[in-house]
Structure formats: C-alpha cells, structure tokens
Amino acid sequence: MWEVFRLNLITVKNYAGEHLLFILVAAAFIYLLISEKDKKNRALFVYLPAAILMISMFPHVRMLFARFIDEGDTYYRVLWLIPSGAVLSFAAERVFRKKKIAGLIIMAAAVMAAGSSMYGSEAREQNMISASENPYHLPEEAVQTARIILEGEEGHQLKAAVPPELTLYLRQYDTNIYLAYGREVLMGYPMENDIFMALNVSPTDMASLKEAGRAKQVSFYVVYKDQEFKIRPEEAGLNCRGETERFSVWCDEEELEEMRAINFYYR
Amino acid sequence: MELLLSGLKLLTALIILPFAAGLLFLHVIPGEKKRWHMIFITGWLIDMSAFFLISLICMFFIKQKSFCFCSGIFSVTEFLLCAAGIFYAVKKKELKGIFKKEIRTEGYLNRRNLPFIAVFALLLAYILYGSAAYDFFDTDNAYYVTQSLIAQQQGAMYTMLPYTGGVTALDYRHALAVLPLYFAYLADFSGIHATILQKSIMPFFIIPLYFICWYEAAAGFYKKEEDKDSLSIPFFMCMMAVFLIYGNVSAYTAEHFLIARTWQGKAVFAGVAVPLMFAGLLKLGDEEKNIYPVFLLILTGILSGMCSSLGTILSAGAVAGGALILALVKKDIKTALKGFACCIPQLLYMILYVML
C-alpha cells in the first residue's frame, strides 16, 4: 500500500518536472482558496481540483486504474483533469485586477521563468523537436526512401525490410508499404526476428537476408550505404532501385514479380 | 487549383456543416446573444456523436471496406443535419439575427481591449507557427497517424496492423476510440493525405478550439462577478496562451501533449474535452433553468469516449465529482442528479467496453 502511495508521489513529482511552474500553480490555488467568494467558482476551481488530487493519491485508485484501464505508466493522465493553467490565470487576473497591463507582463515573465518552452533549448537538447522538412512532418530521407520504393509500383502492396529508424515513418507516408518488422518488434524482442537479425547484424550477409526475406514475402531491402557487407546486395542478385543520402534501396525483382501477381500477404 | 478545392472541401466538412448543424439548437443555447462559437461547438459535437455511432456500426457489422461505407453514410448525415439546421433557423426567422454585428462581437472589440487581443493574437500566431514549422519526435504517431492513413487508403477500420501491414482481427475494446477515423473521414472528404491533414492542418483547428473552449469556461467563471470588467477575459486568455507555450515542464503535462501530439486522442481529450467539461459544469452551477448544460456535458462525454477509453472514465469522474461538489456547496440535490445523468453515455460506453 505504502509502496503504491510512494509511486503516486513520484508520478506527481515527475509531472511537475524540475521547474517551478507548479509551485506557482499551487500558490495560485491557495490564493483562490482564500479569496474566491462565488460558490460555483469555488466548487469547480478550488474543491474539485483538490478532490481530484487527493483521490488520485489513494493507492486503491491507482490499483483499480492498473487493473481496468492500463497497466503501463499512464496514471499521470488523471492529473490532466486539474485545470492548472486556468487556476493560475484566474488567480493572476484577480491579483492584478487594478493594474492589468503591468500584471500581464509580470505574470508572463513569471511563467516564462518558472516554466519550460516547447520550442526552447531544453526541448532541442532532448531531441524532442526539429525543423519540419515536409508537410508530412516526417524526416525527408524517410519520405525519399518511400518514394523510391513505390516508384512504378502503383496498385499493389509490397513488403520491405528496413533499418529500425525508418520503421516508424514509412507507413505514415504510404500504407501500401508493408514492413517485415515494425515498432512492435523493436519494443519487444528483436533478437527473435530473423529478418531483423540478418539486416542489422554487421557484417551483413545479403544472400541469407534475401532467403529469410523470401520466406516472409519481402521484396525490398533498405540498407545503410556505409554498412559492412559480407555478401554485397548486387552479389546476392538484388537490383538497386535508388539511393538517398544515407540509404540505398535494393529490390528482389523475382519476388516482386511474384507478389505483384498474388498481392496477398500473410503475416 | 486542386489545393484550393481541397481546402474548400475541408472548410465545408469541418466548419460550415457543423455550424449549420448547430443552428438546430439555437433555442437551447442560453443567452440572448447567440454566440457563433457556441453554435459551432454544439454543431461540431453533434457531428462527432453522429460519427461515433455511424463508425461503430460500420466497424462492427460491415466486413469489407467498412470505412468507405462509414465515410459515405456520415457525409450524407452531415449534409442532412446541416439542411435541418438551416431549415430550422429559417423557419424560426432567426437566420438573419445571428449575423447582426452586436451579436457577433458582443460589443467586445473596443479601444481598451485591443492591446490584450493583439497580444493574444500574436501568442496564438506563435503557437500555430511552431506547430507548422517544427516536428515533434513521438513514436506513438506510428500507431495513430497510420491508423488514419490505413482507413483512407485501404478502407479498413482498425482491421489492419499499423506497424507492419497485413490483416488483423478487430480489437473491439480499443476500436471504440474512433478519433483517428474521424480525421481519416476529413482526409477522404477533402482529398488531402491523412498524415498531412493531421500533422500540418489539424493543429490550426484544435489549438484555436482549445482557446475557444477556455474562453467559454472563463465567460462562465466571470458571469456573476461584480467587479469584473471587460478586460478580465482577455487577460485570462493571454495568460492561458503563455501557459500553453511554457507548460512543457515535463513530457507528461497536458500542454506538452497538446503542442507535441495535437492530433492524438489523448491531446484532444486534454485540450478540448476538459475545458468543455468545466464550461458545462459552470453553466450547470448557474441558477438558470436551462437544459443546455446537460446537453453540452453529454456531448462532451461522447467526445471523450471518441478520444480514448481512458477519456471516458476520467470525464465521467470529473463531471460526476464536479456536479456532486456543486450540489454540496449550493445545497441543491438537482444539480447532482443532472450531473449524474450526464454520465449515462460514459456508463453505456463502459458497459460496452466490458462486454466486448
């Protein structure tokens, strides 16, 4: 029981992060607790957030959540019901009612100092944010790779084995590209997937990869241009379909010919 | 030219048709001045509820190309609701009335307000520029965005694997969250690629909607304040914009989700459904005898269910809890009963979830 309670405290602490913004929110909350007179406003912006916070601290609530909703680390979403921005903004408006412009400048400066910007250096350091290169908001190289794979192949699906970093993006561009392995393998046990091991182990043996791929109806292979090869793609009988800055796209033409005709993929 | 046509179609499906559907409820929306934003939100929520029903029926009962049926049936439904709304407004001779200048702006734009409105507009422009100009790294997009694209390109509703492709059995429980399919419908109707629609265009709809919903909540908060002035709400909106930009104190906050993953169901829940719940509860707490708050809360509950299964339980908890606390504070049992009645859709959803 105490262990779960400790987990709840850690959840709240992680939610608030290492910045002081939620200290400001807590101060705003205390101010509203003291000064708010209107009953319905008190009910919804003082008592309700307090009740939500207290109830979410109960170990039993977390255990029910884990049992019925989600076992993973998503309990923090209960805290989304607490309107922290609104509490802070209502309190700020009341404190600075007589001097609104000065108040806005002071409070905005306080929030900027206590918070962390989505577009700031911290977000960049954590690699959360990058300039978007196309309207799909996907890495440009992933889009180029997908275009190379799909060139001339309209009207049917095709299966590709690609490096792990591309698996997240290709199917967001076009769902006619099936993948030999995707994010679910990367989140689980990639060592058990023979195509993953054949493609991502260095030096790469393209002939055995092609054999493993044919068993799974794979007709396209994307490899790094500077990857070390035991048997090179052209030696294994693959045809180069195109290249981007870091990747080269190879096609098993016979398998593709067969799959074009059948156009049915079992898993 | 094609781009312009797609844009017009998207505008029709996302703004014009829902606004016209909202006209059906002109006499339910409170206030002598029928404000455009509430007409739009009501109509949009009604369209979302209709989509929820139609998509579930198509998903469960149609085996092949279910999305094509869903898209067709929902288009017709949207047009029918739009026609009904316009017909109703014309019949009640209200149609000209909602276009009157005083009603549109509520005498809101004046010399004193202008600095705050200008600041808010700048902040909003900055947020929207950020959404357009930056990519946010998130691996969940490989699931949600791909599900939409699968619906648009393959016609399948949650019956294909998003990570690898190939057919799969319908996961009935998680299929209840149909928001990605709504985006697929918009993509299908307008001819825009689903990924481009969600990542480049939807933030321009969802983030202003977030501010509109909090504006409505603020209007409820300040309704009875004796010493409020016309600058209270603009000040509040500017503060909310600053808080949204600087709310990224951890990867768990609602503000982080709303900017980094605007198009995902969880973000729409945190950004649109939560403020609507507060707006509805504030209206419920008013003394006025009006059915609209119950209506708004029920529709918001259905939207929460569409966004994610988690959203259903959280919204039911918040609305029931909020109504109970309101009832205790005002010593009025009817408020609590009304609040509990608003949670009936969520209860039905949970029964369905458990049965499946």
Describe this structure in words.
Chain A has 267 residues and is α/β, with parallel strands linked by helices. Chain A is built from 14 helices and 8 strands. Chain A has a 5-stranded mixed beta sheet with strand order 3-2-5-8-7, with helices on both faces. In chain A, strands 4-6 form a two-stranded parallel sheet. In chain A, helix 2 packs across helix 3 (39-57). The longest helix of chain A is centred in the N-terminal third of the chain and has 19 residues, at 39-57. With 356 residues, chain B is an all-alpha fold. Chain B has a domain at 111-137 and 202-356. Chain B has 16 helices and 1 strand. Chain B is globular. Chains A and B meet through helix 1, helix 3, helix 5, helix 6 and strand 1 of A and helix 5, strand 1, helix 6, helix 8 and helix 9 of B.
Strand pairing plus helix content of chain A: what structural class? alpha/beta
The whole-angstrom Rg of chain B is: 20 Å
Helix content of chain B: over 70%
Global morphology of chain B? globular
Helical region count of chain B?
16
